[in-house]
Structures are given as C-alpha cells and as structure tokens.
Specification:
CATH class: Alpha Beta
EC number: 2.7.2.8
Site (Transition state stabilizer): 2, 215
CATH architecture: 3-Layer(aba) Sandwich
Function: Catalyzes the ATP-dependent phosphorylation of N-acetyl-L-glutamate.
Domain Aspartate/glutamate/uridylate kinase: 1-234
Number of helices: 10
Radius of gyration: 17 Å
Strand order of the largest sheet: 5-8-2-1-11-15-16-14
Number of strands: 16
Pfam family, one: AA_kinase
Structural class: alpha/beta
C-alpha cells in the first residue's frame, strides 16, 4: 500500500482499525509512505529552497537531510504509533535500513539532483518482519549500490518497486481523491477500470496532470511480474482496505 503524506494526516482512526482487522484475518499490509507537504513545510521553516520538475522534488544534500528527517523520523513514527494504537504491531524503517532499497540516479538527475530510481529491494527483510507479526512501514529513502550515497525516492515509485519485488498481486494507492477522474458530459466521474493505454492517452490530452502523473506512472511501472493491478482509492472512505480486497468496485483499478 502506498500512502501519501498529506493523505495520512487526514486518515480517520477507522482506517488503521481496518488494517488491524485485516491482519487478524491473516492479510498483512506493507506500507510505503510519502510526506511531501511536511517536507515542504520544514524546508520553508529552515529557509532551504527546493522546487519540482515533473512532480519530482529537486534534491541536494541539504534537502536530503530534511527529507530523511521528516520521512524516516516524524512521519514514519507517526504511522507506526497510529497503527499500534489499534492493538496491531508495526515496525518502521527506511530504505537505508538493512539495504532495504537500493537505487541509482534517475535519468534526469542533472535537473533534479539526488533523486533515485529503485534497482533492488530486500524482499526477504520485509518478509521476515511480516513473519514476526509486524506491519512494515517504509520511508522511501534509498542507498546507492556502494551504500554511501542516499537518494530521495518518489514514494509512488518506491511503493511500485516494493510491490513488484514482493510479488504481490495488488497494490493499493491511498490518496485524498476517489480515483482517476474523467469528464463525461461536463461532469467529473470516477473511472472504475482504466487500462495502461488509456492512461497514456489521458496524460497526453491533459486530463491527468500534475501530481497525479507520477502516481499513475508508478502504478503502470508496478504492473509487472505478479502485480496484476493497482487500485487508487480515497483513504477517508469507511473500511476502504477491506472493500478493495473484497472487490466491491471502489476507486479506480488500473489494469494491464
């Protein structure tokens, strides 16, 4: 499951109760989270400038320090706390821990700096945490192959890579929107199912724009190996995770 940082603050306690219920039923959620707004707020307080190129944050070492502090510290532990309040067990870690996420510079690193593309995920470590009865909560900071350089990884990209390397069949993207919207007869409607080809057309036409582009691109990249579909849902919807897993037609399913 990928959970946006801005979405997270607004999630009701029932969302985490639903997660605990699923764990009791033997279905364990692996969470990869973002934290864009909190990072921007902290950068602002510290007077550090940072912009965006195509939805990716321009990252130098100073920005990276803040990214790691906010994601691996503040937000990661907030999610762990909220899960544990329900009586479930959670373990927070970042891609740095146990070489969980290895990365290389993105193709346009000359524009965005220290932003990474995932090359490897230590799936055995995640499986081990799950086997011990914990819900893994992962902050998307990665390491280069030599273990020296840190990389800021887009949370959608990181979640897609983790899902692929774990070999799960479904990835859930929890957002503050009900799904991918399309204007039909002047009204915006949620598309129940959309194919990869249709998404590409909607990006070209401008119907999918801004921060939704990396979301859907990561979803597309995630549909590989055993991952059959990605579901984009609104986290404030009651029992949203259970509904997705029971196939009640909530949100937008992105399929091959």
């Amino acid at each position: 499951m990928k959970c946006g940082g801005s979405t997270l603050a607004a999630l009701p306690s029932s969302f985490f109760e639903d997660m605990r219920q699923l764990q009791d039923e033997g279905i364990v959620t692996v969470i990869v989270h973002g934290g864009g707004p909190a990072i921007s707020e902290t950068l602002g307080k510290l007077g550090i400038e940072s912009g965006f190129v195509n939805g990716l944050r321009v990252t130098n070492e100073a920005v990276l320090d803040v990214v790691e502090m906010v994601l691996s510290g503040q937000i990661n532990k907030e999610i762990v706390r909220r899960i544990q309040l329900t009586g479930a067990a959670a373990l927070g870690l970042s891609g740095v821990d146990g070489h969980l996420i290895e990365a290389k510079p993105v193709a346009n690193s000359h524009e965005v700096g220290l932003v990474g593309d995932v090359t490897k995920v230590n799936a055995e470590l995640i499986q081990g945490i799950v086997n011990m009865g914990y819900i893994p909560v992962i902050a998307p900071v990665g390491l280069g192959a030599d273990g020296g350089q840190r990389y800021n990884i887009n949370a959608d990209t990181a979640a897609g890579a983790v899902a692929s390397h774990l070999g799960v069949e479904q990835m859930v993207v929890v957002t503050d929107v009900p799904g991918i919207m399309k204007t039909v007869d002047g009204e915006k409607q949620v598309l129940p199912v959309v194919s990869v080809a249709e998404i590409e057309e909607m990006i070209v036409s401008g119907e999918i724009y801004g921060g939704m582009i990396p979301k859907v691109r990561a979803a597309i990249a995630c549909i590989q190996g055993k991952v059959q579909e990605v579901v984009i849902v609104n986290g404030s919807e009651p029992n949203v995770l259970s509904k997705v897993l029971k196939g009640t037609g909530i949100g937008t399913r992105i399929v091959r």
